[in-house]
Design a protein that fits this description.
This protein has 339 residues and is mainly alpha-helical. It has one domain (13-278): Alpha Horseshoe (Serine Threonine Protein Phosphatase 5, Tetratricopeptide repeat), CATH 1.25.40. Helix content is 63%, strand content 0%. The chain has helices at 3-8, 28-33, 38-51, 55-65, 71-85, 91-103, 113-128, 152-165, 169-182, 188-204, 208-222, 229-234, 241-246, 251-276, 286-296, 301-308, 312-326. The protein is globular. It starts with a helix and ends in a 13-residue tail after the last helix.
């Protein structure tokens, strides 16, 4: 791409098609086919492959599209490649991609729109990886990126997710609920992520009925197209709600989420720990991680048993195994090893 073309490109585009796309639930494939530009159609299909759990196909498609002549397609593909790689085994490729995107900072003027887009991508990626020490919000907030309207819901998701993970739960839930109410609908994927963020906020406040409402709303948006990856990404943070809402009602999808989330979690932990120097554990089984996560948030054994559909004695047994694996003596120390 010529230098003049790079400098003149305005941030008036939305580099994502499906993630921020407006379509009725059940029409995701049709939304992909509606793209007339071939590279953007391939990008949309790669997004759909990822969200439906076909992560190997998504990773291959994203990787190929990083060579696109379109900057918006190539930068979106780079982010998609990094995120989809979390469900594979080559986690150090993600570190390489992360560092490659980060080096783009020095290639463009500070006030250029491409620099703003690169900064927005890095902000999103760092929030997803809980790499909070690298997060720098512009003084004027998200508006500094001059985002297109279609990108604002997913930007609100990223920001509210950040707020929750840094302890500002009430503000996060309020902002996410407001974004969900006022966004252009139907926009299933943005709605799923916002709803899961709200669900997590209410879970942290132990307001279980509202948490369940937003989880079920997210699932209603996802189920017609099989968009299970947001639930895979959030599984550790939604410990118990998956079991309560879909373990028996949607057993086949629940098993797929478990299978994918085991790979995703292991890769995510490796990348997160590499970038942050933290020691979140990948030594726990799926059920142990759920128990540890809930216990670290102050849930009683009875609450954990009720949420996970197991006995109180099973909870006690899992906690003994968790303490042995992590070399700790109390629940107060769990926060260092779980999300």
């Amino acid at each position: 791409m010529a230098e003049a073309q790079k400098k003149n490109m305005a941030l008036a585009f939305d580099p994502f098609i499906l993630t921020t796309g407006v379509f009725e639930p059940g029409m995701a494939a049709a939304r992909c086919e509606s793209e007339t530009d071939e590279d953007r159609k391939r990008l949309a299909k790669a997004e759909l492959s990822y969200y439906t759990g076909n992560t190997a196909a998504a990773n291959a498609a994203f990787r190929a599209l990083t060579q696109s002549d379109s900057y918006e397609v190539s930068i979106a593909a780079a982010l998609g490649n990094a995120i989809s790689s979390l469900s594979g085994e080559n986690v150090f490729e993600i570190i390489k991609l992360y560092n490659s995107i980060k080096t783009l900072d020095v290639l463009f003027p500070a006030d250029s729109d491409i620099k703003k887009m690169t900064d927005a991508v890095m902000l999103y990626f760092n929030i997803q990886l809980h790499n909070f020490s690298e997060i720098r919000f512009p003084p004027t907030g998200l508006n500094a990126f001059n985002l297109p309207d279609s990108l604002k819901p997913i930007a609100f998701y990223a920001y509210t997710h950040y707020l929750i993970e840094t302890g500002d739960i009430g503000r996060a839930v309020g902002m996410a609920e407001g974004a969900l109410v006022f966004m252009h609908k139907p926009c299933p994927i943005s709605e799923i992520y916002l709803s899961l963020t709200i669900c997590r906020g209410y879970m942290l406040r132990k307001i279980w009925d509202k948490a369940e409402y937003y989880f079920r709303y997210a699932w209603a948006q996802a189920a017609p197209d099989g968009l299970i990856m947001p639930f895979v990404e959030y599984r550790g943070m939604l410990s118990g709600m998956l079991e309560k809402c879909i373990r028996y009602e949607e057993s086949a999808q629940y098993k797929r989420i478990l299978e994918l989330s085991n790979r995703f979690h292991s890769s995510w932990v490796t990348v997160h720990n590499e970038l942050t120097g933290e020691k979140i554990s990948d030594a726990l089984t799926a059920i142990e991680f759920n128990v540890a996560s809930l216990a670290s948030k102050g849930c009683s054994n009875n609450e954990i048993a009720d949420l996970l559909g197991i006995t109180v004695n099973s909870v006690r047994a899992h906690l003994r195994n968790i303490f042995n694996k992590l070399g700790i003596d109390s629940r107060k120390e769990l926060y260092k090893f779980v999300i």
